[in-house]
Amino acid sequence: MLLAPSERRYALAGGALSLAAIIVFVTVATLSLLISTDGMPVGSIVSDPYILRVLRFTLLQAALSTLLSVVLAIPVARALARQPRFIGRIWIIRLMAVPMGLPVLIGALGLIGIWGRQGVVNTMLSWARIDQPVSIYGLSGILLAHVFFNLPLACRLMLAALERVPGEYWLVASGLGMRPVSVFRFIEWPVLRSVIPGVAGLIFMLCATSFTLVLMLGGGPAATTIEVAIYQSLRFDFDPGRAVGLSLLQIALTAVVLGILSLLPTSGDAGLTSGRTIRRPDGTLFGAWIADRALLTLAVLFLGLPLLFIVIAGLRADLVKLVGEAIFWRAFATSGAMALSSALLSFALSMPLVRARHTLSLERKARHGARSFFGAMGAASSLVLLFPPIVLATGWFLAARDVGDVNVVAPVLVVAINALMAMPFVVRVLEPAYAIHQRRTQRLSASLGISGLAKLRLISWPDLRKPVLTALSFAMALSLGDLGAVALFGSDSFVTLPWLVYSSLGSYRTNDADGLALILGVICLLLTISGTMGSGVADEPKREALSHE
């Protein structure tokens, strides 16, 4: 299935332009950071006691968050796997997708409502005359929030692995009369052991680059991660030298983590199977039946109560007053325009890469340069993992400050950074869909002599419409709820919905923040749902997409 020479040239040229644009954007930010060091030796950055303290806390909270998320996810995943006929099971799995599709800012508000000083848990403890309240701030609060967001991710990935266990294994286990302990030891644990390293590495990466949760729940200088320290250095202390040192340290940290992730083994095939669905013998035991239901109930309460609080607290706010304010519509228009622009830009950068990579994959004897080009385009879509948004924002903030007014270019920079942030998911959705589309239609299009706009209108768009809309909707939701880059560039003249929520909290207008959070959450969830309707990707939220990169 060969392409016409003109199609090949256009595909490779588009991929090269997209790759060049991404490299230039990231390089300018990186060079700005390096130039801003002003000859400062790297050793002084690493030996700074403050930076070392921030690095230690970043690694500590990421390690503890990963450990808690993985350890707690194992029994929940096992309970879901053992009870396939549990009433409401599908809704529990769907509930686990909500924290991953919800803006982090909104999830943090829900957690504060349940675990905060005036939250539900501490209110109940005061009724029981317990004087030591639960603290949502500091290390304990950061760990709690990270478990809230990452336990569902770990659970869903483990559940997917357990559900791939061949049914014949359960026939053998039933015939041998294996007890639950033996089932876990000889069947479940080998499967879980193969996926846990990848799951743990992904969660560690997410926690090490956490920004919004630590910004809201951190307990001051003693509980600050690298990304939050970068923000504080520029926004409050205006210490560019320290911000640059922290940014370079963040890049080094993410590079090390990504290098380790690339060395982790991938999960293998569970084995051959006839495809029959066979009921597990250990799930029918009365003790397991009771324990699984109790465990799933606790998981539902842990995940569902913060979400329920967001809805109740949001409805208590004066939504009519909030919607009637001019600043809301200004923030809504800004967020909407930036979300749409980010999604379109992300698609415009991703699609040429996908086309070029597919074109090179068709060449049976690719030269060394072509293979390098193929790998570079694949890595470009994931550069945001190596250069987190707050680091890119810092580099461009310093570059724009030297040229002119930062506020003038702030919207453009936020759009570009959010577009790069969405690219891993967009490419993950588009690449397999485009490959399947080409296999189905390339020969027919060539035989009919259809190309150009006619092919796009008659063949490509009808076949690729669903994956394209899915990618755009998730990219919009991701951009709409992001506070990372906006936190650095936000001002009275540049207000988005997440920045408005955060500003309301900072001004102690909690009711307004709850109402705005509800509105923002509903919009993001509607975008997420609309992108998965009828497309078969409802079970692959944006964070799971990163696990395949």
What would you say this structure looks like, in words?
The protein is mostly helical and about 550 residues long. The protein is built from 24 helices and no strands. Helix 3 (about 50-80) packs antiparallel against helix 9 (about 180-210) and helix 22 (about 495-505) runs antiparallel to helix 23. The longest helix is centred in the last third of the chain and has 43 residues, at about 405-450. The two termini are about 25 Å apart.
Task: Give a concise summary.
The protein is mainly alpha-helical.
* Largest sheet entry: none
* Unreliable spans: 534-549
Whole-number average pLDDT? 82
Shape: globular
List SSEs in N-to-C order: HHHHHHHHHHHHHHHHHHHHHHHH
CA distance, first residue to last residue: 27 Å
Structural class of the secondary elements? mainly alpha
Helix content class: over 70%
Number of strands: 0
- How many helices does DSSP assign? 24
The percentage of residues in β strands lies in: under 5%
Rg value: 25 Å
